UniProtKB/TrEMBL annotation:
Keywords recorded for this protein, A-Z: Oxidoreductase
GO cellular component: a single term: membrane
Pfam families in alphabetical order: adh_short
Name assigned to this protein: Short-chain dehydrogenase
Region (Disordered) location: 203-223
Organism per entry: Kwoniella heveanensis BCC8398
């Protein structure tokens, strides 16, 4: 039994959906006739975006508040039993640098980054699979938004972020294999795991840097606009790819797939 196709779902929950890449994906999915629910930390932004794009609703959720996730999943699936897609998009990037004039290494900030970027997607994914997605007759889709920095950690002032995205890449890879090989749940085999791998994109992800606009085209020529990013993401969705990237990120994903990915496929057998 194969997992469902990437765009076969009917209703998606997008974390970090009030702006940036989350909002862009929401707009595209709405164009395709999908029902979209937004989740995020700022209710004001959620209200504004929900009205602007005509999403079906929103939930205030801090993905770093792990203790709140079980109750959130219960509320979500009770109010929207039709939800069959989770997009783990929420994330933060904090510059953390030892012995630097520009930045410090704040362990409390690093812990929060780990909670939001790792523990949030972990608890949401496993909770939704066990309590809801594996029980759906027509399958489900989980999309995890990682980063090229999880493949090649060249942004040396972001060691924690790089590590969290490397974790999300490996987690997505292993979860895909586990579900495909499940011997106790037929529903698990129908769940599609998609990894979205952004390169540098003109979002507000760098808001904690000394120059929060250093990922804009005038400062970083190879950075993609959100529209450019979405053009490649749409093609990846339509091609039913397991791993979707854009712009210069496509080459990074290709090289990993041909080298470590091929070795993984062999060893995972």
């Amino acid at each position: 039994m194969a997992p469902v196709d990437t765009l076969s779902f009917k209703c998606a929950l997008i974390t970090g959906g009030a702006g940036g890449l989350g909002k862009a994906m929401a707009i595209e999915l709405l164009k395709r006739g999908k029902k979209v629910l937004l989740a995020g930390r700022s209710e004001d932004k959620l209200i504004a975006t929900t009205k602007e794009i005509n999403a079906s609703g929103y939930y205030v959720l801090d993905t770093g508040d792990i203790a709140s996730i079980p109750d959130f999943i219960e509320k979500l699936t009770k109010e929207h039993p039709e939800v069959d897609c989770l997009i783990n998009n929420a994330g933060v990037q904090r510059p953390l640098q030892l012995f630097s004039d520009e930045y410090s290494f704040d362990l409390k900030s690093a812990d929060q980054e780990i909670d939001i970027n790792i523990r949030g997607p972990l608890h949401l994914s496993i909770g939704m699979i066990e309590r809801h997605f594996s029980k759906l007759e027509n399958g489900a889709v989980i999309m995890n938004v990682s980063s090229v920095l999880g493949f090649v950690p060249f942004s040396v002032i972001n060691p924690v972020y790089n590590g969290t995205k490397a974790w999300l890449h490996m987690f997505s890879t292993n979860l895909r294999t586990q579900l495909a090989k499940s011997t106790t749940s037929e529903g698990a085999k129908k769940i599609k795991i998609v990894e979205i791998v952004p390169p540098a994109v003109e979002t507000d992800l760098h808001r904690d840097r000394t120059n929060p606009d250093d990922n804009k085209k005038e400062n970083m020529p190879h950075s993609l606009s959100i529209d450019e990013f979405m053009e490649d993401v749409k093609k990846g969705w339509e091609s039913n790819l397991d791993t979707v990237s854009a712009g210069p990120g496509k080459e990074v994903v290709k090289v990993w797939g041909e080298t470590m990915g091929a070795r993984y496929d062999k060893m995972a057998q």
